[in-house]
Amino acid sequence: MSKESSLKAALGEVSNFPIFANLKMSEIEALCAMGEITVTPHRQALFSFGHNANFFGIVLSGAYKLAKPTPNGTETIIYFSTPGDVVAAFIMPQPEPKYPVSAIAMGTSRFLKLPKSTYLNAWMKNPDIILRIQNLLSTRVAQLHNYKVLTKSTLSTKVASLILDILQKTNSQDDDLVLPLPLTRKEIADSLGASVEAVIRVMSDWSKSGIIETKDHQIKVLKLDKIIELINSAT
After folding, report:
1. What pLDDT, in 10s, does the model give residues 161-187?
2. Whose C-alpha in 75, 76, 100, 152 is 20 to 30 A from the C-alpha of 65?
C-alpha cells in the first residue's frame, strides 16, 4: 500500500475517534496534513525522553506506555496511551521542544505521525481542537489524581483501580474483559510505585481466587464485581 493510500485509510480510522468527532473529512484532512503511518514493534520506542520533539500524533492501534527515567536508572510509567489518544501535541509550540517522556510500544502498535509544522499551521489555529486536547489531558490528570488519592490504600486496591481504568478507557466490548494491552508485572509496579514482588503476590492471589486469569502478559478479568469491590472499599 502506498503512503497516500495508508494515510487515506488512517483518516477513516481517526474520524471515529472523539478528538475528531463531528468534523468534516476536509477538516480532518487539514489536521492530518503531511501525516505518516508508523508501525512500532513490541517494546520499541516511538520516541525517547530528552530527544528533539519534531512530531506528535495519534495512536491508531495497540498502545504505548509513556515513561520517564528515574535517577536510579529505572522508569516511572506516567500513562498508557491507547487508540484515539493524542500524544506530544502541547509541546509542539515550544521553540526547541524535547520529549518529556519516552513512548514505548506495548505489542505491535500503529501511530499517525504528524510533523510539528502541521500542529503550528492547523491545530493551533483551531480552537475547538485545542479544547478537545485539553479535555483529553484533563482526563489524564484526573487519573493521576485518582492514583494519588489511593496512595494510602492497599496495593490490591491500586492494581484494581489501574485495571478498571484501562478497561473503561478502551471501552472494551469483550464479554471476557481482556485488557487490550500486554501488561507485565513490572509495568504494573512501575506505574504504581510498587515492588515487582508485591505485585506478583497480588496477581497470584487473584489468580488463585479466580478473579483474573493471565497468559502471555494478557490479563482477563473473570470477576469484575470483585475488582469494583476492592476499589469501593477504599472510598
Report:
1. 889 888 877 655 455 688 878 888 999
2. 152
pTM, to two decimals: 0.81
Distance CA 143, CA 139 (A): 6
Residue 38, SS3? strand
What is the tens place of the pLDDT at every residue in 106-137? 989 999 999 999 999 999 999 999 999 888 88
d(CA 11, CA 62) in angstroms, rounded, equals 17
Model confidence pLDDT, tens digit, residues 63-72: 999 999 888 8
Is residue 47 within 8 A of residue 99, CB to CB? The reply is yes
Q: What CA–CA distance (Å, rounded) separates 144 from 158?
A: 12
Q: Give the residue carrying C-alpha cell 471501552.
A: 171
Instruction: Using alpha carbons, select from 93, 63, 30 the residue that is nearest to residue 187.
Output: 63
- Rounded to the nearest 10 degrees, the angle between the axes of helix 155-169 and helix 127-149 is 160
Helix residue ranges per DSSP H, the chain: 3-14, 25-31, 116-118, 127-149, 155-169, 185-192, 196-208, 224-232
